[in-house]
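INTERNAL TRANSFER SHEET
From: sequence group
To: structure group
Subject: Carbohydrate ABC transporter permease

Please process the attached sequence and return the structure record in the designated field. Keep the field labels unchanged so the import script can parse them.
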Amino acid sequence: MQRQMFRVLFYTVVIGYAFMTLVPFIWSIYTSLKAMPDIDKLWVPLGNLTIENYTYIVDKFPFIQWLLNSVFVAGVVTLGNLFFNTLAGYALARIRFPGRSLLFYVILGVMMVPGQVVMIPVYIMLADWGWINTYWGFTIPFLTSSFGIFLMRQFFLALPKELEEAATIDGLTRWGIFWRIALPLSKPALAAQTIFMFLGNWNSFMWPSLLASSDDMFTLPVGLNSFHWQYTAYWNLDLAGTMYMTIPMIIVFLIFQKWFIKGIATTGIK
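Return from structure group:
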């Protein structure tokens, strides 16, 4: 009896929490279908809802260009992080070299530094290089991250050393061991890193808003911010654009969901 009561209580809490998280999303969809005169109304008849907001932002704004910019920037940065973070994480976990521990502690220290601290120095550096309002400035400085290196290092540490020893006996080089053994086994960590990096850069607003000075270089978060004026905001258009932004995030998460959960569960276990 007590077990059944506990199960009922557990599922009640879980369903209630799920409902609380879904309500803002459902309300955003509902508001994105409202016409401008109805934006302040709590309830609008279903017959008055319209998809004109979705077609309007595509027709009247360079929305497709914003979308392509976001896809390019998030895609390049994600691929760069997967490549560099994985190599660095493997080197720190498996290759002995002078200063390895010190370098790892430096990376941990970088994780603790707020991004706002380095905004001005990085911006000045990019301005000196002429990378403001360019794809170079949007991507190159963000092709690696201390968190991604830490994530991959912890995962590679959990791999049995016997696998590498057997591969060495079979004649594999260090690169062969990494490419044919370590990398295929690191799919959970790679999936987790893909989701973190893609979603983080897809939703990024601070750096794109600083580096972009023309409409054709805006990413989606920066472009959608143009719907906000000093004294008013077009929330129906803003939320319609937000729904467009949400679709790629849902697709990426659904594709890597299985590996993501496995990666979070196993990373750091030695």
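Handover comment: The two ends are 40 Å apart (CA to CA). The domain at 62-266 is CATH 1.10.3720.10 (MetI-like fold).
Transfer complete.
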